[in-house]
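Key result, reporting period 2: structure in, sequence out.
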């Protein structure tokens, strides 16, 4: 796959990073945040977030990155600053109903796997335009999770980058594939294991 047709994140200072804190204690999370200087954390599970967030620095930007269930949206909106896992227009409109300005990403199912969450790439442009019309919801960008095989991941990251359009953010890249995501033009990484095990990789700098 040739990435030259896409905007490459050559300036690594422009990268943002979300510390994926699922399964880790407040002490572990606080230690990594202090050592790396990161300003964002991401939680998959609402229950864990409810337990951890009151004990963490209130200034940390909190991202919800798990499966978005309609019955939990009210609590998620109250607790988080950013929701990265919006799959459809219905969810975006439900988030809009609450009296809180909030930032969201549209999650894209990059490989069509029915077991994976996310909107179809074919409906992404329509959904993006419709979500932009909402008043309290700010659509920051697109988010996706790539396949494990390197060849597939490269193509899927390129697809996600092409769907970003004029949106400011493209959230892609995790511990296993962040290098590929950076090459494809990621603006935001979601890193967990690598940060807890070895710290922030020396070859990247993040906001």
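The corresponding designed sequence is given below.
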């Amino acid at each position: 796959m040739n990435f030259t047709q896409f905007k490459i994140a050559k300036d690594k200072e422009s990268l943002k990073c979300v510390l994926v804190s699922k399964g880790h204690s407040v002490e572990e999370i606080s230690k990594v945040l202090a050592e790396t200087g990161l300003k964002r954390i991401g939680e998959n599970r609402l229950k864990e977030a409810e337990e951890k967030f009151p004990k963490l620095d209130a200034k940390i930007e909190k991202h919800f990155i798990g499966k978005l269930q309609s019955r939990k949206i009210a609590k998620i909106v109250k607790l988080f600053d950013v929701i990265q896992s919006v799959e459809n227009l219905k969810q975006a409109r439900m988030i809009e109903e609450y009296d809180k300005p909030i930032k969201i990403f549209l999650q894209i199912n990059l490989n069509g796997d029915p077991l994976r969450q996310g909107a179809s790439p074919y409906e992404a442009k329509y959904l993006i335009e419709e979500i932009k019309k909402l008043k309290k919801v700010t659509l920051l960008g697109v988010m996706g999770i790539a396949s494990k095989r390197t060849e597939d991941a490269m193509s899927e990251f390129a697809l996600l980058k092409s769907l970003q359009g004029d949106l400011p953010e493209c959230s892609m890249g995790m511990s296993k594939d962040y290098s590929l995501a950076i090459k494809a033009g990621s603006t935001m990484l979601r890193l967990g294991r690598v940060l807890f095990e070895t710290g922030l990789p020396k070859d990247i700098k993040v906001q």
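The mean pLDDT is 91. The domain at 15-196 is CATH 3.20.20.10 (TIM Barrel). This case is discussed further under Risks and Mitigation.
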